[in-house]
Request: fold
Amino acid sequence: MATYRVHFAKQIFGVPFTVGSVDITRARDPMRALRAAELRFARQHGVEDWRERADRADIAPASGGQN
Reply:
């Protein structure tokens, strides 16, 4: 199991501004981590879909994780 960090950003005039990030501590693969982060981000912001608050989600291995 690996640890991932997903950054959510809103693009304004083509420039991405980070609006939040979510750490997923245990995921089988990056796609599962991304889905879990999308659900958690939406729940934290009180919306049904994460796209209501952000335009993009970028995933990366978290530093210090067990990759």
About this structure: The mean pLDDT is 91.
